User: Fold this.
Amino acid sequence: MHIPWDTPSDYAAIKEKADALDIKFDAVNSNTFQDQVNAKESYKFGSLSNTSKAVRDQAIQHNLDVINIGDKLGSKALTVWLADGSSFPGQNNFQTAFQNTQDSLIDIYKALPENWKLLVEYKPYEPNFYSTVIQDWGASLMLANGCGDKAYTLVDLGHHLPNTNIEQIVAILQLKGKLGGFHFNDSKYGDDDLTVGSIKPYALFLIFNELVYGMENNPQNPDLAWMIDASHNIKDPLEDLMQSLEAIQEAYAKALLVDQNELRTAQADNDVVKCQEILQGAYRTDVRPLIEKARLQSGGAIRPLDAYRNLEIRNQLIKERGKNTVATGL
Ligand SMILES: [Mn+2]
Assistant:
């Protein structure tokens, strides 16, 4: 949930409904990248990094409020993504902005309930186009380390410059026990928030290959907070979610097919051709029948999209929703 976008009017009621449907609330997300209605201070020039203490204090307080809301819903993590940065050289003092951010995050971290995590998201550019305070995984990791053991880096697939080796970032964060969460989407150019797997399915598989290895070999990492963070502005949102889940399950199943022992041996022998054969052999396997069978066995639809399209309720929902809504993805 993003607060205040998704702030429920009745916490008890929404919690009860979620419990009845076996739905749990994972990380809650704060929002200091937009000015809030009736807020005294503006985030135009940053929030947790702002040169003004009054602005920083307001942004810190918002995060504490979000923790309280999440606590009522059974959430166990707070994700912070900042738009803070600068659009022109000289606008910001890089060191001051970073230190302010660290100090603000420490204040938020101190207010975390004992069994909570703080997830620090990064992004290279946009909405600021010259510098972003938390620009990459290195900055995020430094801030997380500066907070403590319950703070981790969060990887959003779309928050990288083109051709960045995301699977390597995932691997090294796991090695250091600092991978806390994941946002799924896909992109051609920037933070495009397209459906995960729609543009670069092989890259998604390579990321899952590292995740499978890390989940096996790096138990120092927490259970990851997973989120589908895409913008479905020209699709039915539920259909987009189904396509996302399909892509994730497929990449995960293919990664599980990689013979890790065989790969380790080929790597030790520097048999480059064999290494590629092992990975691509898994990737080229059609796992769809396997996933369909797994769905059937767990009481789900073999092909959820087809099942959904045949449902009366879908047509009802489309009628109620009216024309396409435009969503903002972060
Ligand atoms: Mn995100």
Notes: The first strand starts at residue 28 and ends at 29. The radius of gyration is 21 Å. The beta strands are 28-29, 77-80, 85-86, 117-121, 131-132, 151-156, 179-184, 225-228.
